[in-house]
Amino acid sequence: MRMPDKKGYFGDFGGRFIPETLSFCLRELEESYFKFKKDKRSLRELDFYLKEYAGRPTPLYFAGKLSEYLGIKVYLKREDLLHTGAHKINNTLGQIFLARHMGKKRIIAETGAGQHGVATATVAARFGFKCDVYMGEEDMRRQKTNVFKMEILGANVFPVRSGSKTLKDACNEAIRDWVTNVKDTYYLLGSVVGPHPYPLIVRDFQSVIGKEARSQIIKKENRLPDYLVACVGGGSNAIGLFHPFFDDKKVKNIGVEAGGLGLSSLNCASLIKGKVGILHGAKSFLLQDEFGQIKATHSIAAGLDYPGVGPEHSFYKRIKKACYVAVSDKEALHGFKMLSKLEGIIPALEPSHALYYLKKIAKKNKGSLVILCLSGRGDKDLDIVREKRGKIKDKDKG
Amino acid sequence: MGKIENKFRELKAKKKKAFIVYIPFGFPSISLSGKIITSLDKSGVDFIEVGFPFSDPLADGTIIQKATQISLKNGVNPDYFFAGLEKLKSKVKAPLIILTYYNPVYMLGLKKFLKKSKDAGVGGIMIVDLPIEEAGNYIKEAQKYELDTIFFVTPATEFERAQKIMKLCRGFVYYVSVTGITGPKDFFIKSVLEHIKRLKSCTDIAICVGFGIHNREQVRKLTKESDGIIVGSAIVKYIDDHYQEKNFLNMLSTYVKGFQE
User: Fold this and answer.
1) Domain total for chain B?
2) Which of B:99-158 have CB within 8 Å of A?
3) pLDDT at residue number A395
4) What CATH number does the domain containing B237 carry?
């Protein structure tokens, strides 16, 4: 069966739980998207920009030294090499054409780590849209470089001071803006979350990751991989990798959530520790208390610091299409160092979670063939890593 | 006939329009919000919307966001909430309507939520983020408990859809004055009146206007076409600014009456 269904459900998950004011524009968006998908000229134009502007296809790089170290065969899908430094541009390019198609003049977006914000500000600059980005104050502090980048690109970055001052609250604020300016404004959502049709649209635009990876691995190895591994916050890079392999029954999907300070402490492991609920327009697994109030979260990676997860991941969990695991802040830092030292590639802290999990796979299944989505590069995280290293060293001294 | 419809019939006979007030439960404190509701009832408020707090109220502006945070900090949960309403049941004449978001309802269990609402003497329910497409089961269950389902129509709702929504409304239709979030603002009243007039031409159910209303002048103009008006943020802000004053409940009563004179 084709997922999602007409009402935007992946099995029991997804849907459209929104204030009435947004109903019209979501139906308008859905209709425009289906038209856009059939419009060969727009699709050709998107292809052109993905290739010439963003740098697709990205290499599927055989990480030989890392493979030797771990005793498994690891290929990295190099989304970190894309323009703006992460997979986010796949989606923002797609959606900016959609916004143009719909005749909108202004773009708004939420951002956590700032990668989606930068990718949005980038396409807004290129295609001539006014751009306002909402970002939690706490995230603005820890991802300063990206704030500066957005400003250079001509976007306004609005600090969000409500709640936990991170991605969830930035989403709330973006939705509030959208409800208010619904006529001329396009909400360019950055992950496979939110009300239908966003999880579908973002998944489709990110599926380019898995499509390329699938044909690349067949060319290089003449077979399909044993594992696909990707980090999951909202889950767009993971679903982008997993989706094109959906019918490949033997390929195991592993989504790595942010374990934060630990699974019994503050974390972002919605699929492992959460319960089903409704947030930001969709039914999905959610970190919440027994009364349905959303819980505080924490991750060293601002891009994973979110209490919810895309409904399609909840569906994958339910039908056991993917296995979801958690990697802590500390372990992610280990993954960060491991790739930097062995391969000369500095990863973002988000995929560093996935990188660490390779060690676990290596322990269980020596010699297996793995594709890992290296969703972004680490430039934005250098301050955080420096700060953490300082702390670790101080402790050692004490 | 439900409590809400009854009340509208009463008002109609007196040629009066409904004056509806929104109060977040547990704000500024659990005990004071009970007193506020009782006092509003005595001041002649026709319906009281009681807010059940949700941590992420994405249709609300800063005033109600702040009140919601305080209410949650005060420990409001379904037990406190329904016990609080139960206590008011015999004291308050104005029908109570619960306003909330879907997640706390879903978490408690829809049926349980409706049963507790019914037992607490509630007249109707509004769930901000439950549009008609997702509301099938909710409508069916609410009917079983004889609770009115109040849905929203907004300036962004197409006429055909509005007709569909109004058919699913019991008690009254909540007309949202502006595309936007809650909070005092000045808006173009003429287009609201025109929209309501058009809606009224195809329904018998009462239509009340809310969002942004903060002064007497708006109330006077809006009641020309609508059957009632809803004031939320303006009153919440008044409470926030004045609740520590000695004569607070009397002051609030005067303030609220100021909208109706």
Assistant:
1) 1
2) 101-108, 128-131, 133-134, 151-158
3) 56
4) 3.20.20.70
